[in-house]
Amino acid sequence: MINVLILSLTLIFFSLSILGYGLLFNNKFFKLDLNTGEHGLIGFFILYLISVFFNFFISINIFFSLTILSLGLIFFFIFFFKKQNIFFDRFHLLILIVGVLSTITINLHDDHLLYQLPYIDLKQQFKIIFGLIHLNDTLAYQHGLYDTMSLFNLPFYQNRFVFLIPVIFLMFFLSIIKDKINLENEGVIFYYCFFILTLFLLKFTRSKEFGTDVPVIALLFLIQIYSLEYLKNKNIENFYKMIIFSLLAVFYKLYAVLIIFNFIIFYKEIFNFTKKIFQKKKIILFLIIFGFSVTFTKSFINSGCLNYPVTLTCVDKNLASWSIGKEFASYRSNHLKASIKGWLPYVRSTNFNDLIMPENYLEKFKFNFHKNVFKDPDLERLIIVILAVFIIFFINISFNYKSIRNENYNKKYHTILLGSGISCLLWFIMLPHVRYGGYAYVSFFLFILMNYFFSFKKISKLFFISFISILVFYFSAKNFKRINKEIYSIVDQKIYNEFPIPVYEDIDYKQMIKNEINFNISKHKTICGLIAFPCLPFHYRNLDIHISEIKNYKFLVSNGNQRKNLLIKEIKEINDFKRGRSGYHDNLIIKD
C-alpha cells in the first residue's frame, strides 16, 4: 500500500511540475486562453525543448533533473496562489484516480528494454552522442516523448517512474476533453468528444498501452477539435493552438504531419493569420524555427540523417564519418514500410514457408498489400474504432430521430471534409495501422461525413452521465481484475515487495575488447537493457565498431554494410525460429 501512495504522490508531483512550465510560458509568452489540461500539454512542449537543447552541452543528470522539476513545481505554486488559469474540480480527481489505476502494473511496454530505457539512460549519462545509431539503430528513431521522460529522474528510484509520463499526458488530454463537453451544446464537437472519451475508457486501460503513439493520437484528436471550434466561432486562438500542438505531435512522431490537411479550413485567412504571427505571436515563429532546428540537429548527430530512417535526409560517411549511410537507412526504411504494409501477417499466413525479405515483399505487393494488412490483428482495433463511432451515432439517432436529417448543413464544413478525407486516404495508403494515427484520421473523417447528412442534437444529461459512469465502472473493474491477476502472478520476491513500482530486469553480460575499447556484450541476442555503455547485443558482438572522443563528445563509427548484413541475418533467424527451424537459439538468452 505504501508503494501505491509513493507512486500516486510522484504522479502528482510530476503533473504539477509539468503544469508549472505550461502556466509560466503561456502567461509570459503565448498569452492564450487555455484550460488546465492545455497548460499541461504546453508544459510538455517546453520540457521537450529543454531536454533536447541542453543535451547538446550536458548530460541530463539527476542534478539537472531535480533543478528542472523543482522549478516547475515552484512555478505552479506561484500561479496557483495568484489563482491564475488554474481550476480543479471533482472531475479532475476522477481523472487522477483513472490515471493511477492504469499505472499499477508489472507489465511495461514491450520495447522498454530494447530502446526506451536505454535511450533515456544514455541521455542521462552523456551529452549527445555522435553516431549513437551504431550501437542500436532503434536508438536513432524519433524519440520526442522519451527526450522529455529523461528529465524525470529521482534520487533512490532513478528512472523507475518515467513510465508515468505518458499517463500524465493522457490525464491532461482527458481534462481538456472534459472541458469541451458541454451538455447544453449540440453539434459534432460534443459528439466527437463523447466518442473520444468512450474510446479511451474502453481501449486504453493500462499504461503498457501508452507508448509514444497514444500521446500523438491524443494531439491529433485535439487539433481536429480546434479545427471544428474555429469553424464554429472563427476565433484565431484555435489557429495558434493548432500550430503549437501540431508541432509537438510532429516532434513526437513524423506521421502526425498528415494532420496538416486540417489547415485547409484557413485557406481564405492564412495570409492574414500568418501576418499576425509575425506581428503579435513571434513566440510561435520562434517555436517553429527553434523546435525543428534542435530536433533535426539531434537526429543528424545521432544518425547522420535529419530524420532516420528517411533515406533522403541521410548523408554518406564521406560527409559525416559517424553517419549510418544511405544504404542501411534504406534497408531499415523498407523493413519498417513492409512491417506497416502487412509483411509479417503475410509471412505468418504462409506458415513461414515464404520467408520473403522486406524489400522483395514491397515489390511483390506494391499495389495489393492491403489484403495482407487485413490479416493482421490490428484490423480488430480498426473495427473497434468504427463500431465506437457508430455507437455514438446511434445514440444521437435515438434521441433525435424526428429531426435527424441535416437540413441546415453549413457549407463551411466542405473544407474540413476535404482535409479529413485527404488525411484518411493518405493514412490508408501509406500507414494503414491504427496506432499510426488511424484512431484519429478514420474516426474524424467518419464524423465529418455523417455531419454532412445528419444533424447532431442534444442528448439527455441523465443518459450521458449514466453512460460515462458505466464506462468508468468498466474501466475500473477491468483494471482491478488485471491488478489482482498480476499480483498473484508475481514469483520474484523483490518485484512483489516493490509492486507497483517497476523493477527493471538485469541482463547478464560479458566483456570484450574491441578496437582497444572494453565493450559489454549482452547475453541477450537483441537487447542491452540498462547494461552500461558501450553495450552490444549478443547478435551484434562481432560488429566492427570504433569509439573516439573529441572535446568530450563521443563519436561512434561502424561498417554500415556489416550492420545491414547482421540485421538481415537477425530477421531471417527470427523467422526461422518462428517456423520451428533450428537456425535460431531455443530462447533469446545466451547461456555460458
Describe the structure.
The protein is mainly alpha-helical. The protein has a domain at 509-579. It contains 22 helices and 5 strands. The chain has a 3-stranded mixed sheet, with no helix packed on it. It has a two-stranded antiparallel sheet with strand order 4-5. Helix 4 (90-103) runs antiparallel to helix 7 and helix 9 (213-233) packs parallel to helix 19. The radius of gyration is 24 Å and the shape is globular.
Shape: globular
Proportion of residues in extended strands: under 5%
Rg computed from alpha carbons, rounded to a whole number of angstroms: 24 Å
Estimated helix fraction? 55-70%
Give average pLDDT, whole number. Answer: 87
Kindly state the number of beta strands: 5
Extract low-pLDDT stretches: 579-586
Q: Order of strands across the widest beta sheet? A: 1-2-3
Distance between the termini: 40 Å
Number of helices: 22
Give the helices and strands as they follow along the chain. HHHHHHHHHHHHHHHHHHHHHEEEEEH
By helix and strand content, what is the structural category? mainly alpha
Query: Biggest sheet: strands, sense, closure?
Result: 3 strands, mixed
In short:
Helices cover 59% and strands 4% of the residues. The protein is mainly α and 592 residues long.
Which key terms come to mind for this protein?
mainly alpha; 3-stranded mixed beta sheet; 22 helices; 592 residues; single chain
Fold topology:
Layout: H1 2-30, H2 36-54, H3 62-81, H4 90-103, H5 112-125, H6 144-149, H7 165-180, H8 188-203, H9 213-233, H10 236-252, H11 270-280, H12 282-303, H13 326-340, H14 343-349, H15 358-364, H16 370-373, H17 378-400, H18 413-430, H19 438-453, H20 461-489, H21 493-498, E1 509-514, E2 517-522, E3 535-536, E4 545-550, E5 553-558, H22 560-579
Parallel strand pairs: 2-3
Antiparallel strand pairs: 1-2, 4-5
Helix pairs in contact: 1-2, 1-3, 2-7, 4-7, 7-8, 7-9, 8-9, 8-17, 8-20, 9-10, 9-19, 10-12, 11-12, 13-15, 13-22, 17-19, 18-19
